[in-house]
Design goal:
about 20% strand, binds cytidine-5'-diphosphate, about 50% helix, about 230 residues, binds adenosine-5'-diphosphate, globular, three-stranded antiparallel beta sheet, five-stranded parallel beta sheet, 9 helices, alpha/beta, single chain
Amino acid sequence: MKKITIAIDGFSSCGKSTMAKDLAREVGYIYIDSGAMYRAVTLYSIENGIFDRDVIDTERLKKEIKDIHISFRLNKETGRPDTYLNGVNVENKIRSMEVSSKVSPISTLDFVREAMVAQQQTMGNEKGIVMDGRDIGTTVFPDAELKIFVTATPEIRAQRRYDELKAKGQEASFDEILENVKQRDYIDQNREVSPLRKAEDALLLDNTDLSIEEQKKWLFEQFNKVSK
Ligand SMILES: Nc1ncnc2c1ncn2[C@@H]1O[C@H](COP(=O)(O)OP(=O)(O)O)[C@@H](O)[C@H]1O
Ligand SMILES: Nc1ccn([C@@H]2O[C@H](COP(=O)(O)OP(=O)(O)O)[C@@H](O)[C@H]2O)c(=O)n1
């Protein structure tokens, strides 16, 4: 079977990484969570005083972006990749509400996107990769053989994220999560560089009424059609 490139884009918290990880594991592909990379840049900015409340010191971040090294290593316990920022495991920290509230403004910056896209393209240069994000089918891998664009209602997405945080024992407010989901969708769709949009040749999946199992089955069917 030939190796292909799979791009999964869409709105926040709709299940992109869940289905991307499952597919990658079953077919033996690399999985890359591109959102985790933007989250890691955001965490670096918070921890290194690049934010003054909500204002970003873009000149400093521009100088320091070359010192921000992001990598993924398999966590043997979960069987999934954890995100590392300059050698430190930040998988839990990057999922906090503080990072969620600051990541979309960081992701509008052209020099941040350039640096991330270059790394993502290097990761995918041998194909056999599933990457999820916002601009994978449009900018990172415009020639991907399989492109999926996922959506679901904001309320369902907020509920899924709320349940996830609660299950991890983290404090969470449904209203705050819903507001964050809507705000990020707005910023992601309206930024100048690589805004979130469906690539013309992407398949649309609205998973509002689909279970994890059902969407997994659907994705496998699409994979099998294309990778033959
Ligand atoms: N179809 C689904 N039905 C219910 N919950 C789902 C579904 N798909 C994903 N989830 C759950 O929703 C949460 C967000 O999914 P995730 O894959 O992290 O979304 P994304 O990568 O799009 O932000 C996770 O807790 C996941 O287990
Ligand atoms: N390819 C990507 C991936 C994420 N992002 C940004 O990073 C944020 C976090 O992405 P994510 O995939 O972790 O978001 P969730 O939907 O998982 O909450 C998004 O809201 C975007 O602002 C991006 O701009 N481009």
